[in-house]
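Retry 2 of 3 after timeout on previous attempt. Resubmitting structure tokens to design endpoint.
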């Protein structure tokens, strides 16, 4: 590790590694889930690569006093202050697991995609998440920096 290679040695080694990874099926793939220190459900992976409800269905023991999610079947607890809040506000307690509620909010967000627009100042083409229907002023990086400095 951290061995210094000449440019020629490095390029030769990279080619060997690529050939090996293609033979083992690793090339172009994500790191295997087994290398993650976290469960799938505890990461944002489920926001971008969601599994079906059937794949994530909870199969363990349900703790006493826990609520059970209507969608995933996963148990969840409400703290004393959360129960007091719902009672004070006269709203029913949630019936979805916090992760499911987050998923619903996540789905309401605009998709993460870029569109091509022109800089309002110099008319250079730029990639931006702001669609043409929005009235936001879009500037290229240089015009933006010129404006704020």
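Retry 2 succeeded. Sequence:
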């Amino acid at each position: 590790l951290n061995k210094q290679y000449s440019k020629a040695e490095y390029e030769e080694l990279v080619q060997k590694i690529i050939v090996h990874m293609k033979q083992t099926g690793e090339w172009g793939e994500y790191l295997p889930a087994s290398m993650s220190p976290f469960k799938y459900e505890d990461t944002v992976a489920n926001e971008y690569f969601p599994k079906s409800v059937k794949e994530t269905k909870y199969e363990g023991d349900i703790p006493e006093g826990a609520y059970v999610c209507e969608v995933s079947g996963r148990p969840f607890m409400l703290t004393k202050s959360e129960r007091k809040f719902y009672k004070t506000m006269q709203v029913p307690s949630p019936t979805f697991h916090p992760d499911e509620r987050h998923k619903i909010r996540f789905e309401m967000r605009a998709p993460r995609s870029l569109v091509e627009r022109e800089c309002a100042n110099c008319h250079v083409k730029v990639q931006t998440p702001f669609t043409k229907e929005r009235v936001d002023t879009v500037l290229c990086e240089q015009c933006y920096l010129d404006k704020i400095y």
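Attempt log closed. The first helix runs from residue 7 to 24.
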